[in-house]
Amino acid sequence: MFNITDHQAEITVDCVIDSQSSDKSAFEVTWFKVQEEGGPITIFTARRDGTLHSAVSNKNLLFGRPRATHYKLTVPQINPTDMGQYYCQVEEWLVLANTWKKLASDTSGELSIYVHTEGAFLQHDPKDLVEPVRVCLIRVEAELCWKMDLASQRAPCLLFPESIFVKSVME
Fold first, then answer.
1. Structural domain of 8
2. CA 92 to chain centre
3. Beta strands 62-67 and 2-4: pairing type?
4. Burial 131-156 (b: 16+ CB within 10 A, else e)
5. Rounded distance between C-alpha atoms, residue 77 and residue 57, angstroms
6. Are the beta carbons of 29 and 42 closer than 8 angstroms?
7. CA gap 169, 19 in Å, rounded
8. Which residue numbers delimit the Ig-like domain (predicted)?
9. CA dihedral 157, 29, 34, 104 (to 10 degrees)
10. What DSSP designation does 164 have?
11. Rounded to whole angstroms, how far apart are CA atoms 157 and 143?
12. CB of 147 within 8 A of CB of 155?
């Protein structure tokens, strides 16, 4: 769990692709937010044709692609309405005979975001008020593994630097 007390706190949801079926594959990455009430809502999509689509009109989101297989979405200036679980879905596509064919699809684990606004009065005198501080608590419960062919005997997983764990899944 992370504690962020900066007024300008931000979160970044990374989606890292560990393997692909073809060098010519194109990826479509979609980020979702699950609120306490209701199901998941799409917040942003990096489409396979290279176009970007933000489904959130009241918030600026920052998209980045530092490598061909590393996509990231940053939600700047966190506030209580940003509370919820975030995750991404990756689809692998390939053009075969002039038509797109979906080769694979997988979903990451969820990144839980808790935002608390705290403040306290030291005395009843207004000059002694303490300015509220926005606190963002992040609990990572995410694991993203890509299935590979059984001949390779490996299933690489995404590592989280704060909790350093690897769990291979072979099916």
1. 2-152
2. 18
3. unpaired
4. eeebbbebeeebebbbebeeeeeebe
5. 15
6. no
7. 14
8. 1-112
9. -60
10. -
11. 7
12. yes
Give the total residue count for the chain. Answer: 171
Task: Give the tokens for residue 9.
Answer: 């706190």
Parallel/antiparallel/unpaired status of strands 70-75 and 11-16: antiparallel
As to burial, measured by CB atoms within 10 angstroms (0-12 exposed, 13-18 middle, 19+ buried), residue 23 is: exposed
Q: Is the dihedral of CA 70, 74, 80, 82 positive or negative?
A: negative
Q: How many CA atoms lie within 13 A of 62 on its CB side?
A: 9
What's the DSSP call for residue 81?
Answer: G
pLDDT in tens, the chain (171 residues): 334 444 468 889 999 998 899 989 999 999 999 977 778 999 999 999 999 999 988 888 999 999 989 999 999 988 888 888 899 999 999 999 899 999 999 999 888 887 776 653 333 444 444 444 444 444 444 444 445 555 555 544 444 443 333 333 333
What separation in angstroms does the CA of 38 have from each of 19, 35, 64, 81? Answer: 33, 6, 28, 14
- Give how many domains the chain has, as a whole number: 1
Tell me the CATH number at 63: 2.60.40.10
81: left (phi over 0), alpha (psi -120 to 50) or beta: alpha
- Is residue 71 domain-resident? yes
